[in-house]
Amino acid sequence: MNQEIDMNLIEGLRKQNPKAQQTMLDRYGQLVFAQVARLVSGIENAEEVYQDVFIKVFRSIDTYDATKSSLRTWLSRIAYHESISYLRHSSKPVIYYEDREGEAEKLSESEVDATFGQPNPETVQLIRAALKHLPPDERAIITMFYYEEMSLKDIAYVTESIPTTVASKLSRTRKKLCKIIKMLQS
């Protein structure tokens, strides 16, 4: 049913129907804005990227292929690339945590799970603070997997990678995030 609704929406978008464009914004706007805002700091900056995403979506709707991904995943791919592009061209230099000694890699998965612990307000706050210390591509993978609950296959599509690479990067990034949380706690 949802796929059928999306196909009708896509048909309207391909005809540049303003009602279809508004429906797209109503249905997917919050999701896209949330994804962009988790990567791009500052409401004004996130709004700028959000607008760029939908301009690109409306201009390139003819390239959407339902056999490759859902509409939602395709939108996430565009939002991801627009956000990363914005951050690369941003004039503000940002310093991210770098695991030069490989300390994070030495952490076991059980140690990582214990650090994240049961979701509670303190843990969520620590994770949010720690995410700011990750480079945008790593932050994106964490947020797509945990916040947006995307599959490894969908994340791979968004990032133009393969699921095994995403799984490996997710594991490394979780360990890095764990190390950052421990540093923030001390």
Characterization of the model:
The protein has helices at 2-14, 18-39, 43-60, 71-89, 109-116, 121-131, 136-147, 152-159, 163-185. The chain is mainly alpha-helical and 186 residues long. The termini are far apart.
> What's the pLDDT, averaged over the residues?
85
What's the oligomerization state?
single chain
Q: Total helix count?
A: 9
Topology pattern, helix = H, strand = E:
HHHHHHHHH
**Distance between termini?**
51 Å
- Anisotropy-based shape: elongated
Helix content: over 70%
> Would you report the number of β strands?
0
Radius of gyration: 18 Å
Query: Structural class given helices, strands, pairing?
Result: mainly alpha
- The proportion of residues in beta strands is under 5%
Biggest sheet descriptor: none
Sequence stretches where pLDDT stays below 50 over 5 or more residues: none
Give the helices and strands, then pairings:
Blueprint: H1 2-14, H2 18-39, H3 43-60, H4 71-89, H5 109-116, H6 121-131, H7 136-147, H8 152-159, H9 163-185
Give a short summary of the structure.
Helix content is 72%, strand content 0%.
Descriptive key words:
mainly alpha, 186 residues
